[in-house]
Design goal:
Blueprint: E1 3-5, E2 11-13, H1 16-26, E3 31-37, E4 45-50, H2 51-66, E5 74-77, H3 83-94, E6 98-101, H4 111-121, E7 125-128, H5 130-142, E8 149-152, E9 174-179, E10 189-193, H6 194-208, E11 215-218, H7 225-238, E12 241-245, H8 247-252, H9 255-263, E13 267-271, H10 273-282, H11 285-288, E14 298-301, H12 308-318, E15 328-333, E16 340-343, E17 349-353, H13 354-358, E18 372-376, E19 385-389, E20 403-408, H14 420-427, E21 439-448, E22 451-457, E23 462-464, E24 467-469, H15 471-479, E25 485-497, E26 500-509, H16 518-533, E27 537-543, H17 558-567
Parallel strand pairs: 3-12, 5-6, 5-7, 7-8, 11-12, 11-13, 13-14, 14-15, 26-27
Antiparallel strand pairs: 1-2, 3-4, 9-10, 15-16, 17-18, 19-20, 20-21, 21-22, 23-24, 25-26
Length: 574
Amino acid sequence: MNSTSFGDGETTADDLPGLLAAWARRCPDDPAVSHLDYRVNPRGVLTKWSWRELDERVDAVASWLGGRVRPGGTVAVLIGQTPDYHAAFLGALRAGMVAVPLFPPGLPGHGERLASVLRDCGAKTVLTIQDTAVEVEDFLRTHGLPVDQIVSVDKLPATFGAGFAPIPPAQDAIAYLQYTSGSTGDPRGVMITHANVVANARQACAAYGVRQDSVSVSWLPLFHDMGLVLSIAAPLTSGMRAVLMDPLAFLEKPERWLQALSANPGAITAAPSFAYGYCAARVSDWEKARLRLDTVLALIDGSEPVQAGVIDRFYAAFAECGLKPDVYSPSFGLAEATVFVSAGRGGLIRRLDRAELAAGHAVAASANHPDSIRLVSCGQSIGQRVFVVDPDTGIPRPAGEVGEIWVAGPNVGQGYWGRPEESRRTFGNTVPGYEGSWLATGDLGVWCDGELFVTGRIKDLIVVDGRNHYPQDVERTAESAHGAIRPRNVVAFSVAGSDGESAVVLAERAKAVNGVDPDEVAAAVRAAVARAHGLALREVRLVEPEELPRTTSGKISRSACRTRYLADILTEAV
């Protein structure tokens, strides 16, 4: 079994529960995880757990599970954004179970997805807390889910685990199932081993320059791959402390996130592109005057692909707060690789010819080129191999040629839970001349100047009359076509018809706009898209605010939007 040295003669096994125990021995009274709760006090109430307290609470959960669940059994975690999530998740791992990080039933619009995941993983034990226990019980009963036992981990006294003797897990044993943001009725749980998550957390810490005195500040949900690694795994591998806040707290007042970054020197954080644009638009000058962002270590942007315009707006808005351009870290990752694959620093941008890129070639374009696009680099990988290949042959493409991104490394998961054939297709690919299995990510990318640029997802490409169109390009054009369209709330996709594939655009109405003429908006979008992309749209539909379905990480789901469109169940704007 591998081991890690802390530099003072102490060693520990390379698994998350073992790392926790080592930190609890090394610095028991130092803060490990904190929670900023804005539900009662708008200024936030801070709760802190030390390394010793967290270790004791994890022992309590592990001890309770140890006598009730067989080793290797699945245990579902249905808890909100609090330190109790750490206790439940790590307790399941310490007891030798397979954790399934999920969310409480109250997450709007995702009840059916939660039920589908619970059926797929087969968990008969659910970990929750007192505040949501009744809601969880009602949910399980309503959906006919055969759960044998539910425990509120915050009711277990810390002394419950006294004398518990964990058995260090095998490195290749499954630690948890990370469910992807797929369609509601078709959940896929990526099998992540103990070795996978520790390797990926260390890769990420190296990429972002994390030290023990750094601080993870996050509102990303802990059941999400990035939220889990950033707030649980990376702190355990580096010794940095974690500061949590609820996603709703951020959405209500985005300045709360920036205030937490300001109050914690050496902060590292992550968010999708929309969050940076949201802050630029919503945080007032009065709030900016109270922020000090010059000590931020890394701002990770994990959208695919990252939006260059958002970088511009965010830095224009917060440069006065001391924000340094080189802390911005556009990144590429996916659950199948645990999460992290590559990262850049500072947001290297290349301007490319849009038509050539759609044809598979990265050709530089001048700033005054009438049909150019700006792409943001996702940098390079650490500790893993990343190729851009022909998806049909697996043969690497030369620099400047678009292909599918394939990944190999110790962080790549073991496949999908209960899906051997799909696992083989996704995780079992070969690259001629290279050893080992490769993960086919489904993402398109290109190497330019030694850095990885992500261009889009294969399944999302809009192919009309033999020409490729990236949906994010069409979406950006559409959202700027008319003032009644809500920014960053547009989706484009293709549908099949008797004459072949055609494109559809759905756009949410801006909340401040009422009495708009949908035909006028549609005409403006059609004209803009035809002019910019040479693409005739089958339909443009303006819908009510918050009508477009989103993934659990907050991004608009193109596949779910397409499903609702075809089922004709969207509420049109009036």
